[in-house]
From TrEMBL, chain A:
Residues 1-10 have a biased composition (Low complexity). This is Vacuolar protein sorting-associated protein 51 homolog. It comes from the Eukaryota. Component of the Golgi-associated retrograde protein (GARP) complex. Component of the endosome-associated retrograde protein (EARP) complex. Keywords: Endosome, Golgi apparatus, Lipid transport, Protein transport, Transport.
UniProtKB/TrEMBL annotation, chain B:
Keywords: Repeat, WD repeat. The keyword Repeat applies. This is Tumor suppressing subtransferable candidate 1. The keyword Repeat applies. Residues 7-299 form the EIPR1-like beta-propeller domain. Gene3D superfamilies: YVTN repeat-like/Quinoprotein amine dehydrogenase. Belongs to the WD repeat EIPR1 family. GO terms for biological process: regulation of cellular localization; regulation of transport. WD repeats lie at residues 224-260.
Length: 797, 387
């Protein structure tokens, strides 16, 4: 029937499409019926009601003659013509409509014929199939009868056996066999019981595994086969349940392993299982990582935002990381190995790829956590944390050699390096802090009569605290290479870390920085902005650098080399002498600067005193000018200051009367003479030749020249600067008689008190002589004071 | 090639004032003023005969007082200005005056075989720069490249611009400006810039260098704390209009770009005592001459900030092949800023150094003991610069 309908609908749609083609559109399909219906349809009803109008061209009583006459009589020619055209058109339309209808009817008729023919054929085939069905049904009933007979037979046999067992005490062998049979029969029941949800699937599996071999062996016996089939279906159900369970999130690793193990026993495809296993375990591990990550503040690529200190310390973090993540990963790897060993499609590559992505993430997290260790915190804690991390990692690596051993070691090394760098910064900060303290101590107002802490004390404090700090830092850093720390045996920590990170990166870098910083006090353009360092600080730092050069550097380096023995083949290290040279350079620069600063201070005082005085109109000197006393006081103070830190130095042997030597003034009783052959002959000899002759025999004095590291040299430098200034200033003035005498007195006074500070009193003497000679030159009325009077005044003053 | 030995000339008196005879461009001639409180002071006209390495001198008497500063007119060889000390009533006043030397000495050195004392002549006073209202004269500057009619003098804290009229016999104060500030301000030295149509001067007082516009007499820039201590002298780079050198008591010579005065362009620290004088070579501004009270004169080569940082420019078409090769060699070894020579002929403080106005390779230095030393730029360097 269906075929018939299908055929019918097929023709219909075929017809539809044809007519559609003929009329062009669906709406056009209905239109041609309009006039025809009107023509045929209501004719009966209309005939009864309407008055016959023979002129109605559509009416039933149409009479062409009447119509024609009517038209001819009523209409004009134009109307006639148009009427004719209209009529013609209508006639053509009617003709075509009729043709269409005819064609359609014909088509339908043909298709109906076809359908009927087809139906006939189909019914014939159906009859044959029905016959087949009937014979099959007969076969089925026959086999069902056979089955039930067999079952009856088995039940009967079972019952017989039971009865036999009950009645007889059969021989032991038979009894065992019987028991086995019994248990075999009981298998499906047991299985059902144990495999039920919440029961003991392991026992079910165990039982199944024992029974399976037997059942498979005897499966040609229908009864065994039935048992096997039943157990199979039970086990399939169990497998389904187990699989569902596998996807459960709440499984712990042990359960997971068990579950997979059972599934494997159920001979599920291992590849699929291994996939499932890894993804399930992966999810767990991911969750653990996420828990670790939750402790970390959101990663901040710029690293500038201040993050609050982490809630737990690093050891705690690593502990948790290793106890949760690393041990689970180990467990996972171990169970994976034991589960899938030797099974196809589950090679180690898979596990390793899986593990290495996870460990990479774990390393990242740890790195971020380490980055949070901003402060110095407790290094032993860090070392312990790193050690634990490293140990755990090693355990993992034994299982999975490709899980990122290098990355782990690099991470540890990086953390250690970072910590060392931090220590360097801390040392620098510490040193600056110490310097700040020293500056404060130097600047602090001293109660009268009570000296503040002396420079040696300050130096000792500074030096020892810095050294102490350095030692402490070394001790901390040594934790990284302690014997009980596992990662200390890495080649990096044995060689490179000792040399590059600690010796070069920490010790040498610190010493270098210290020298540079100290030098900065001398080099910075103090005259333009920035308050200059107090001279005492310069002196202190000079001494510090000198001490470093002499002993401290070699001590520190020896200490470092002892604690961090460098390898023979290791990279080249900065030799101690190079560092010492740097320190010495800094010390020299600082001391020179000290001399310049102090010299300039004294010189400024002298310059002002000479420039502001009226030397022409001054009265006869009665006293040494106050400024000279001040100069001597200042230089004495400087002497004390320098003496606190520097050795006395060598003084040239003095003539016994040196301190009492007369302050020589230009005298006119000088032998005229020409001394330089290159001189162009010139006018009569003048006075200043004397000083030239004197100079011929004395060495040239460099005023601002490097000084040696002793008190005498420093003082000589300062005195030279001061006296040279005095000389130059006097030369710019014009003096009266008393002005000259005042200079004489002042000069003698300086001579009296300054000679003992200078390395070579002849330097002082020479400069003061020049001052006197210049003053005499610049004097309008050069009458020197009696020497005894000068002495008297000076002694009184 | 052996360099010529320095030529030394000794004056009888102490001396600080030295100037080349600016208007003279053929003969090498320097003027030296002496400082003596008890004898008549002199102006020595030193003629240097380059070929024979001989010095000829003429002495003019300058009886009004010891000379602290001397400068020669850039237009008239015979005219010069001095600042001198006059002692009266127990006071010392520094005055300035314009003088004319006798005609026959202007450009001729007819060496007198007799003793110099026999034919000393006297300067003819042209006019005084009246400073009764302004204080002590520190220095007198002539308008560079001018016609010798305009001079500026620094008196204590005043800058005085004078017009010389009636063939320099009358000095009319045309404008002036005073530096006001805390304390007693005093100019120590000044220089008139040859750039900007000669409308700028620079002055030094204490540690500050100031620039002034001579038209408005207003300050145009100021380098505070140019030196750690007193600034002693200044000079303008003759070829680079914004470059200025200064020296002072901190033993340093500093080079400034006056458009940016926060930091010096360069600093030289070669002297071991105050630097009293710094002079650019008139033609090759990389050559810097400094004199110091450590009795040394130092000639430095500051190529990097000179107007010829890559050596002497030679037009391409002038180069023959050989020269081109030479040029390439020079490019291979770029010149470094360096000290060319330290001259140690002096035994007392050197207070003045000056380049000759006639020979750009020759300079004179004067130390307090009256020793004048004439030196030349080493030949090797001279050829290096020229070729």
């Amino acid at each position: 029937m269906a075929e018939v309908e299908a055929a019918g609908s097929g023709t219909e749609t075929g017809g539809g499409s044809e007519s559609g083609n003929a009329t062009g559109s669906g709406s056009g399909w209905r239109r041609p019926h309009g006039p025809l219906q009107r023509y045929y349809g209501p004719s009966a009803a209309e005939a009864a009601e309407a008055t016959p109008d023979p002129a109605d061209i559509n009416g039933p009583h149409f009479d062409p003659e009447v119509f024609l006459t009517k038209v001819r009589s009523e209409c004009r020619l134009g109307e006639l013509l148009s009427r004719e055209a209209t009529l013609g058109r209508e006639i053509r339309a009617l003709d075509s409509d009729m043709q269409t209808l005819l064609y359609e009817n014909y088509n339908k008729f043909i298709s109906a014929t076809d359908t009927i023919r087809k139906m006939k054929v189909d019914f014939r085939r159906m009859e044959a199939e029905m016959d087949d069905l009937a014979s099959n049904m007969a076969a089925i009933s026959a086999s069902s009868a056979r089955v039930s007979a067999a079952l009856q037979d088995r039940h009967r046999r079972g019952a017989q056996l039971a009865a036999l067992t009950a009645l007889l005490t059969p021989p032991p062998g038979v009894q065992a066999l019987l028991r086995k049979l019994q248990s075999l029969v009981e298998v499906p029941g047991r299985l059902r019981r144990w495999a039920a949800p919440g029961a003991d699937p392991a026992r079910a599996l165990h039982c199944y595994a024992r029974a399976r071999a037997v059942l498979r062996h005897y499966r040609h016996l229908p009864s065994f086969r039935a048992i096997e089939d039943e157990s199979h279906s039970i086990m399939a159900e169990l497998a389904q349940r187990l699989r569902a369970r596998l996807r459960d999130d709440t499984l712990d690793p042990k359960e997971l392993t068990e579950c997979v193990e059972m599934l494997l026993q159920l001979e599920e495809p291992p590849e699929e299982l291994c996939e499932e296993f890894l993804s399930q375990a992966g999810a767990r591990l991911e969750a653990e990582l996420a828990a670790l990550e939750a402790e970390l503040p959101p990663s901040d690529p710029s690293g500038t935002a201040s993050t609050p200190p982490p809630a737990s310390d690093i050891l705690d973090f690593v502990d948790r990381g290793s106890s949760a993540f690393v041990s689970n990963l180990c467990l996972l790897a171990a169970s994976y190995r034991s589960l899938f060993e030797g099974r196809p499609g589950s090679g180690d590559g898979r596990l390793e790829a899986f593990a290495s992505t996870l460990t990479t993430r774990y390393f990242e997290l740890l790195e971020r956590r380490l980055a949070l260790e901003r402060g110095l915190g407790d290094t032993s804690l860090l070392v312990r944390a790193l050690d634990r991390f490293h140990r755990r990692l090693r355990a993992l690596l034994e299982l999975l050699p490709a899980a990122g051993a290098e990355a782990g070691a690099a991470l540890v090394a990086r953390a250690a390096r970072e910590r060392v760098a931090r220590y360097l910064r801390a040392l620098q900060t510490f040193f600056l802090g110490c310097l700040g303290d020293v500056r404060q101590a130097l600047a602090a107002p001293r109660p009268p009569g009570k000296d503040g802490p002396g420079l040696p004390d300050l130096l000792a404090t500074l030096s020892s605290s810095v050294l102490g700090q350095l030692k402490a830092v070394l001790a901390y850093v040594q934790l990284f290479t302690a014997r009980d720390v596992a990662f200390a045996s890495l080649p990096y920590f044995k060689g490179e870390f000792c040399v590059e990170a600690v010796r070069e990166g920490l010790v040498v870098a610190f010493v270098r920085w210290l020298c540079r910083t100290a030098r900065g006090f001398a080099d910075s353009p103090a005259e333009r902005g920035a308050p200059a360092a107090p001279p005492a600080l310069l002196l202190l730092l000079a001494r510090l650098c000198l001490d470093y050069e002499a002993t401290t550097i070699s001590y520190i380096l020896t200490l470092t080399d002892e604690q961090f023995p460098p390898e023979d083949t290791g990279p080249a290290v900065t030799p101690g002498p190079a560092l010492c040279a740097e320190a010495r350079g800094a010390a020299q620069r600082l001391l020179d600067h000290y001399v310049q600063v102090q010299g300039a201070a004294v010189a400024q005082m002298l310059r002002k005193s000479v420039e502001t005085r009226d030397w022409l109109g001054t009265v006869e000197p009665r006293n040494v000018r106050a400024v000279m006393k001040r100069v001597v006081e200042d230089i004495t103070a400087i002497d004390v200051q320098v003496g606190q830190l520097f050795e006395e130095g060598v003084r040239r042997a003095q003539s016994s009367d040196s301190s009492r030597r007369a302050f020589s003034v230009y005298s006119s009783s000088r032998a005229p003479g020409r001394y330089a052959p290159s001189y162009t002959p010139s006018a009569p000899m003048d006075t200043h030749l004397l000083s030239n002759i004197q100079k011929l025999f004395s060495e040239r004095i460099d005023i601002f020249s490097p000084v040696e590291f002793n008190k005498v040299s420093v003082l000589t430098g300062i005195i030279k600067i001061s006296l040279k200034t005095l000389l130059e200033c006097v030369r710019l003035r014009t003096l009266g008689r008393f002005g000259l005498q005042q200079v004489q007195v002042d000069g003698h006074y300086l001579q009296l008190y300054l000679w003992r500070f200078a390395a070579d009193e002849r330097v002082v003497q020479g400069l003061l002589d020049e001052v006197a000679a210049s003053a005499a030159h610049r004097c309008l009325d050069p009458v020197p004071m009696e020497h005894s009077v000068v002495e008297l005044i000076c002694e009184r003053g | 090639m052996e360099d010529d030995a320095p030529v030394i000339y000794g004056l009888e008196f102490q001396a600080r004032a030295l100037t080349p005879q600016t208007a003279e461009t053929d003969a090498i001639r320097f003027l030296v003023g002496t400082q003596s409180l008890r004898y008549d002071n002199q102006i020595h006209i030193i003629d240097f005969d380059d070929e024979n390495n001989i010095i000829n001198k003429n002495v003019l008497l300058h009886q009004v007082g010891e000379i602290w500063h001397i400068s020669a007119s850039p237009a008239d060889k015979g005219v010069l200005a001095t600042c001198y000390n006059k002692t009266s009533d127990g006071k010392v006043v520094t005055c300035a005056a314009v003088w004319r030397m006798p005609k026959e000495l202007e450009s001729g050195s007819h060496e007198s075989p007799d003793d110099s004392s026999s034919n000393t002549q006297t300067l003819e006073l042209l006019c005084h720069l009246d400073n009764t209202a302004h204080g002590n004269m520190a220095c007198v500057m002539w308008e560079p490249m001018g016609d010798g009619k305009k001079i500026i003098s620094l008196a204590d804290n005043n800058i005085l611009l004078w017009d010389l009229q009636e063939s320099s016999t009358k000095a009319v104060l045309s404008s002036s400006s005073a530096l006001e500030g805390k304390g007693q301000l005093r100019f120590t030295s000044g220089r008139w810039s040859p750039h900007h149509n000669c409308t700028q001067i620079a002055t030094a007082n204490d540690t500050t260098v100031r620039g002034w516009d001579t038209r408005s007499m207003r300050q145009i820039y100021s380098i505070e704390n140019a030196h750690g201590q007193l600034v002693r002298d200044l000079d303008f780079n003759p070829n680079k209009q914004y470059y200025l050198a200064s020296c002072g008591d901190d033993c340093k010579v500093k080079f400034w770009d006056t458009r940016n005065v926060t930091e010096p362009v360069k600093t030289l620290e070669e002297h071991s005592h105050w630097v009293w004088n710094v002079r650019y070579n008139h033609s090759h501004d990389q050559l810097i001459l400094t004199g110091s009270s450590d009795s040394r004169v130092i000639l430095s080569n500051m190529v990097s900030i000179s107007s010829e940082p890559f050596g002497h420019m030679v037009d391409d078409d002038e180069l023959s092949d050989q020269e081109e090769q030479h040029q390439e060699e020079k490019i291979k070894e770029p010149l470094q800023d360096s000290v060319i020579a330290t001259y140690e002929e002096h035994e007392d403080s050197v207070y003045a150094v000056e380049w000759s106005s006639a020979d750009p390779w020759l300079f004179a230095s004067l130390s307090y003991d009256g020793r004048l030393v004439i030196n030349r730029v080493p030949r090797a360097l001279k050829y290096h610069i020229l070729l």
